[in-house]
Amino acid sequence: MHNKCRHILPSGYKCDAAALKGKVFCYHHTTSRRPANKHIVETGMLLLPSVEDASGVTLAINQILRQFGKGHIDRLDAGTFSHGLQIAASLVPKMSRDQRPGDTVRELFEDPIRGTIGPEKKGCDQEDCVDC
Question: Among 13, 15, 34, 47, which is disulfide-ready with 7 (CB 3.0 to 4.6 Å)?
Answer without folding.
Answer: 15
